[in-house]
C-alpha cells in the first residue's frame, strides 16, 4: 500500500514539473523544472531498486544522476552565454 502512495506522489510531482517545463514563463524556470524532473526520476529509480530488491537499479540511478547533473551544467552554461 505504501508503494502505491509513493508512486502516486512521485507522479504528482512529475506532473507539476512537466507543467512548469511546458508553461514556464522564462527559460530559467524551464531549466529549474527540468532539473527537478531529473531528481524525481533518479529518486524513482532508487525506489524501484528498493521495490524489486535489485542493486542494478542503483547503478542505473547513479549513472542517470551524473548525466542529469552534466545536462544541467551544460544547459546553464548555454543560458549564461545566450539568454533569451
Give me the secondary-structure topology:
Elements: H1 2-23, H2 27-52, H3 56-81
Helix pairs in contact: 1-2, 2-3
Compact description:
By secondary structure, the protein is mainly alpha-helical. Helices cover 88% and strands 0% of the residues.
Describe this entry's structure for a reader:
With 84 residues, the chain is mainly alpha-helical. It has one domain (2-81). The chain is built from three helices and no strands. The protein has helices at residues 2-23, 27-52, 56-81. α1 packs antiparallel against α2 (27-52). The longest helix is centred in the middle third of the chain and has 26 residues, at 27-52. The protein is flat. The model has no long low-confidence stretch (mean pLDDT 91).
Radius of gyration: 15 Å
What is the CA–CA distance across the termini? 45 Å
Give the overall pLDDT as a whole number.
91
Strand proportion, as a percent range, falls in under 5%
Low-confidence stretches: none
**Number of contiguous helices:** 3
Query: Shape from CA axes?
Result: flat
- Number of E-state strands: 0
Largest sheet: none
How much helix, percentage-wise, in residues? Answer: over 70%
The sequence of SSEs as H and E is: HHH
How many distinct domains?
1
User: Structural class of the helices, strands and pairings?
Assistant: mainly alpha
Features:
84 residues, mainly alpha, 88% helix
Amino acid at each position: 500500500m505504501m508503494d502505491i502512495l509513493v508512486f502516486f506522489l512521485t507522479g504528482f510531482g512529475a506532473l507539476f514539473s512537466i507543467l512548469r517545463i511546458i508553461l514556464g514563463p522564462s527559460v530559467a524556470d524551464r531549466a529549474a523544472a527540468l532539473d527537478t524532473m531529473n531528481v524525481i526520476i533518479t529518486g524513482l529509480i532508487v525506489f524501484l531498486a528498493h521495490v524489486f530488491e535489485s542493486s542494478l537499479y542503483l547503478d542505473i540511478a547513479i549513472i542517470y544522476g551524473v548525466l542529469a547533473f552534466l545536462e544541467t551544467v551544460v544547459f546553464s552554461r548555454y543560458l549564461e552565454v545566450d539568454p533569451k
